[in-house]
Amino acid sequence: MYYHAVLPPYDYSRSQARIRRDSLDHWIIGICRRGTQRQRSGNAEVTFDLGVPYVLTMARPFEAQREGAEIEWASLFVARDSMPELEPLFSATLYRPLAGPAGRLLATYLETMQEVSQNLRASEIAHLETATRALLAAALEGSRDALEAACPQIEHLQLSRIKRLIRANLGSATLGPGRLCAMGGVSRSALYRLFEPLGGVACYIQRERLRCAYRLLTDPHDRRGIAQMAEAVGFFEPSSFSRSFRAHFGATPRELRMAALEGRGTLPHAAFNAPGQGPSSVSEILHRL
Questions:
Q1: How many other β-carbons are positioned within 10 Å of the β-carbon of residue 134?
Q2: This model's pTM is above 0.70
Q3: Residue 276 pLDDT > 70, yes or no?
Q4: CB 71 within 8 A of CB 35
């Protein structure tokens, strides 16, 4: 997903609690085109060069400051599961500029895409996606020196692989730590260590099941009953599913389903937003990627 905005200066952050709550772990290609943008995550600190793409992530806490009369900011959000073959390059170039020729071409390409996207025909979208993937791969590959100099990212690769296994097996009643260890080739202690920042393995599985149920319930073309949808994502007790769903989203499965079938769209829900904030359309879109 591509996002572009002109913003006033402000400070913002993404906390570990927010990461546990929304489970978003997308890669971000961020470009500051006007103003000053700084971001700190752990020991890494970045001051963005104008017009240069940087590799960022939603999977780690960060603090950021935006200064200037106006800030023009563009982001390309990439779901981790969509490009697993590029995971090592994303990890190695994290918080680094894609300053080579392909990186500069990527920045120009994204700016052009912003200008023409409203006029694209449906038949052109698939070609645009292919071009974006190829250019992104070239920009990351152009920073291979960062890959060779970076420390191994084994744990990040393991976590991404196990997340994919979870999403592929949500409907299984036996999905749990023991089975994940067997499928993912990791020890139980390693599995717990990987998911500890996300609130634990069981909590992560529960959130993924609820998120998948949300997507099914808001699809007016899916004619299955609520109980069938719940079972498809691993909830086999209707009352337990309803309680968990309402606690997470602030609405019952039936209320959400009725809204979708009546064409009223989705219901606002607090689970995708920080306390005190209203619904975030960007967050909702990212959850659907």
A1: 11
A2: no
A3: no
A4: yes
